Structure formats: C-alpha cells, structure tokens
Amino acid sequence: MTCSTSSSAKSKFRPPSTVPHGHIITNTKWRGTELVTVLQGQVNILYEDDLNLLDFYPSAGMGVVYVTEADVVTGGYTYRSKLATLRKANIIKVVVLVDKTEVNRQYFWPVQKFVVLELGLTLLPVSSQKEAANMLAALVHAENHPRNNPFSGATKRKTGSIDEAVLASIQCVPKLGEVKGRLLLGTFHSILGIVEASEQVCVLHKPVDCYITNNSLYWISNIA
C-alpha cells in the first residue's frame, strides 16, 4: 500500500532535469505580480504553465510552494493536499514559503503545525511578496554556488569569522536582524548548522526564540 501511494504521488509531478545557472522556473500564475517584479531584478525567470504542485524551482533538486495570506486565513485545503503529495513522492527537497502578516497571524499556527510537525518540511515565513522574492533569489544563488551555499555547513571558515553573504541570507527571516543573525552564526556557524541543531542546544544558547523539529527550523523571534 505504501509503495503504491508513493508511486501515485510521484506520477503527479515531474521535476525539471535541470535549471539553468542563475535562473528560476516559475509557475505562470505568478506572472505580473509584485513577487515577479522584485525577483526579475535579481535572477532570470523562466515561466512554465504546467508545474502542477509547485510554484518555483530554484534548482532541479529543490521546489518551493508559496502559501499565501488568503490560504492561511481560509485553511487552504488545496495547498495541504499539494504538500502531502509532495511529501509522499519524496523526490526533491521542498521548501514552503508562508505569508505571515498582521491579518493572518492568528491563523498561522495550524499551518506551521501541519507543514513542520506533520510533514517534516522546511517552513520559511515571509511578511510580503517582496520578502518572498528576496528569499527565492537567495535560494537560487545558494543552489548555484554550492561552495558558498549558506544552507550548507561544508564550507570551512576561520573560527569566529562570519560570512556576510550568509548573514544577509538569514536576515531574510522576519524580525531576524543583524545582531541576532550574528549570534546565531557565531553559535551554529552555518544555516545548515542552525537547522540541524538539536532543540536542547537551541534552548541552551537561545540567541533567538526558536524551535526545531524534523530538521526544519521555524523562527518565533519576538512573536507576541
């Protein structure tokens, strides 16, 4: 039964065999939006009509689903079904961008619980389409420059040194400024280190309020 379900999920989407350097494959439905306007000044955009379950491909090995403010408020069973299918297929790394605004703040927890706790996917909250575009651009650059990838802990750095590009990337997280960013990197050394840190270590150092579950990091920095 499990194998059959997985095969069915895999048949529902086909990731691209490659994404050209410096490009992002984007679902046509985002054409003309603020997100694309901001994004096209940073990376090259290729539109596809039939991405099915995903909104963006920063690389062939990573897909992004964008859960909008309206999806969060209404409960968005469509996005839940898409994410569940992607999780079952388990072909590529899935990152979920979720609008978190003053309007939908009170509805955010059920989305977070579903994405992080139930599916074990990576959730990145964003406050606007502009911020989402900046996050997507950071993912494209990270995927295209693996040796400088801020999501990887493989790059060796001198003790105590902080890569400014990495610092800039994690500052895309809402309410995470330079000071907290430096504290995090000083403690965990890379974005991968932060994500893979145990909950116990996170609580011990507590450079920001956060919790980590199933290798996914969700920031709760200064949330009332």
Automatic annotation (TrEMBL):
Q: Name one GO biological process term.
A: interstrand cross-link repair
Q: Name one Pfam family in it.
A: PND
Instruction: Name the Gene Ontology molecular function terms of this record.
Output: chromatin binding
Record domain Fanconi anemia core complex-associated protein 24 pseudonuclease: where: 17-141
| GO CC aspect terms | Fanconi anaemia nuclear complex
Q: What is the designated name of this protein?
A: Fanconi anemia core complex-associated protein 24 pseudonuclease domain-containing protein
> From which organism does this entry originate?
Ridgeia piscesae (Tubeworm)
